[in-house]
Amino acid sequence: MITCIGAGPGHLDFLTRRGAELVSNADVVAGFDAVVDVVRPLLVQDQQVITMGYRDQVARLSEVAALHHAGQNCVVVFMGDIHFSGFQFLERVETACGHPVETVPGISSAQMLASRGRVCFDETTFLTFHRRGDLGPFKTHLRDVLRAGRNAIVIPRPWDFMPPDVATYLLSQSVSPAHPVEVWEHLSRAEAEWKGRLGELEGQTFSDMSILLIRALTPMPTGLEGER
Ligand SMILES: C[S@@+](CC[C@H](N)C(=O)[O-])C[C@H]1O[C@@H](n2cnc3c(N)ncnc32)[C@H](O)[C@@H]1O
Questions:
Q1: Pick from 26, 82, 148, 227: most CB atoms within 10 A?
Q2: Where in the chain is the domain with CATH 3.40.1010.10?
């Protein structure tokens, strides 16, 4: 058996009980170093741990797949939720195994940011640029959701499409510089790393663990106005 589980982001408090149970009962626990570190307190004796980075992920995942095919119970831990900015890694796991695998959702950095920034999913579009391949369609989608009056929660791509590059792109597309923006680097902290307007974001520097909230210029009506 092999299962992919979402863990984090960044803290064990945001792992589901189901995910924790699967980690503790696995023969093999695999994932990127930083994500395996999050679940390390749950590891028990005799478990095999396979950590990886961007460069050796394909080779390490083929080791995991071989153990899975040999009958070991394997889990691959993903940062946050698999279903947001995790599908390319999932595809790598499935390519290594040669078949679809089970997934267990986790809590995403996007959900944490929605909670920190107090925005609801209904009025907010989630977009990730943290992916290989052509970013063009995702860039135009971001521009269009802002034009449509929605908020956007955006994962940038280290290091060629970071928050200031997101601003440069949007301003070049005539998106208003007045959009309120927050950049969070560590969602477990109480305050955003940076708060300002879209037009002030160029020239700022952030780490690869940053995520943006770009608010709509005008909040949508709640629909309950008439009841007040
Ligand atoms: C490949 S994406 C994976 C996202 C993940 N699947 C999720 O649901 O949060 C990794 C990016 O998520 C963002 N991220 C994840 N955890 C974060 C945290 N604790 N604080 C800020 N950003 C975070 C950063 O932009 C990071 O580079």
A1: 26
A2: 2-104
Would you say the CB of residue 163 lies under 6 angstroms from ligand 1?
A: no
Q: For CATH 3.30.950.10, list the domain ranges present in the chain.
A: 109-214
Query: What length does the chain have?
Result: 228
In angstroms, how far is CA 96 from the centroid of its own chain?
22
Is 170 near ligand 1, meaning CB less than 6 Å away? no
Pocket test for ligand 1, best of 162, 209, 210, 213 (most atoms within 8 A of CB): 209
Architecture of domain 109-214: 2-Layer Sandwich (3.30)
| Burial bucket for residue 162 (CB in 10 Å: 0-12, 13-18, 19+) | buried
Residues of the chain under the 70 pLDDT cut? 228
**Token digits for 168?**
């440069």
Give me the chain's average pLDDT, please: 96
- Specify the pLDDT at position 43: 96
Helices (H), 105-185: 109-117, 136-147, 163-172
| Contacts for 167 with CB less than 8 Å, ≥ 6 apart | 181, 198, 199, 201, 202
Architecture of the domain whose range is 2-104: 3-Layer(aba) Sandwich (3.40)
**pLDDT score, position 177:** 98
Question: For ligand 1, what atom is nearest to the CA of residue 11?
Answer: 19
